[in-house]
Fold this sequence. Notes:
Elements: E1 7-9, H1 15-25, E2 31-34, E3 37-40, E4 45-48, E5 54-57, E6 65-68, E7 76-81, E8 84-94, E9 99-104, E10 107-117, E11 127-132, E12 135-140, E13 143-145, E14 150-155, E15 158-163, E16 166-168, E17 172-177, E18 180-185, E19 188-190, E20 194-199, E21 209-214, E22 217-219, E23 240-245, E24 248-253, E25 256-258, E26 263-268, H2 270-275, E27 292-297, E28 300-302, H3 313-316, E29 327-329, H4 339-342, E30 343-346, E31 351-353
Parallel strand pairs: 1-2, 2-5, 3-6, 4-7, 5-8, 6-8, 7-9, 8-10, 9-11, 10-12, 10-13, 11-14, 12-15, 13-16, 14-17, 15-18, 16-19, 17-20, 18-21, 19-22, 20-23, 21-24, 22-25, 23-26, 24-27, 25-28, 26-29, 27-30, 29-31
Amino acid sequence: xxxxxxxxxxxxxxxxADIQGMFEAAQPGETLCIGPGNYRVSDGLAIxxxxxxTIRGTGATRAEVVIDFRDIDISKGVTAMAMTDFTFENxxxxxxxxxxxxxxxxxxxxxxxxxxxxxxxxxxxxxxxxPVESTDVLIERSEAFGSADAGIYVGQTxxxxxxxxxxxxxxxxxxxxxxxxxxxxxxxxxxxTGGILVFELPGLRVHGSGTLVQGNTVRNNxxxxxxxxxxxxxxxxxxxxxxxxxxNDVELRxxxxxxxxSTGILAISFATAELAGLEGGDSDPEFDPWxxxxxxxxxxxxxxxTDPAPLFITVTSPLGIDTLEDVIFDGFVGPMLTPETTxxxxxxxxxxxxxxxxxxxxxxxxxxxxxxxxxIPEREPVMLPQDRGGV
Length: 391
């Protein structure tokens, strides 16, 4: 047994029985190890209700331990529920029918050096890394690819960090949804339909706010949208670098945003999404459909908006143009708000207020920042109790 392991599974046996048996025998505080090899399992794997457990691949890199779900017909590959002080690291997860790695109702979760995506299944599953309804979630040095929804998704969670990770060839690269106090930092989001999403949606248990998106490279997110029709991300326009939907207290700073064909940053309220056909805004009496306190500053832009998706014809056609700016704001200012408390922008980058909130026939789309050339106090970095600076 490798050093530091309390239990160990190697290749050569019944992959599902060996790994699931180790999960079921696990005790609090143990490290469960999986040796180098390709494990083609016959069913989904599950672990729950344990404290202080680490699941670790013992290869020199994450590519040396592969759990392959192509043969299963249930939705999830690995499911972890009600875990505390839980770490999952140093392996590759492939080709579940739905989600490769689902975590729910857990506290102090660390996902580190994990590669997760789709190589041998069509259509692809929905989520590569998928923690929800949890507290203190850290995802670092990981890669998500080929998801038909979001590669790295954190939903209905309080306190989260996604950092030093890569999201490629997904519909949504990285998505923070209905979560509180999150940070997306130093990642690469490339060749997705939309690179980074911060969404606030109706009908969910948690209503979120407070996301810091900083130091990321968001480029070439022009992949044709291949999400299942009717899902939320099926409405994401091809060529979108960063998209904010009804999100509150979001700061976008020091990101490099380039070569996104529709626009670099799209900031909209739920009212604009409803114009595009999204439904459900009236189903939740506690849902706030208006965006508030978006602050865009210190970012570097290049070559965005050169070939906008058809959805943007409502912006370009009345103006007789075929390109768009680096930053598009829909112009909706909710009740009791002002332009300054809705959207502020400083520094480089071209801007357009699309003015969807105007009266019919009175659209006054403008590239003048006007009242939006304002400042909002910067958000503090997120601090997690289990985080030791990525060591």
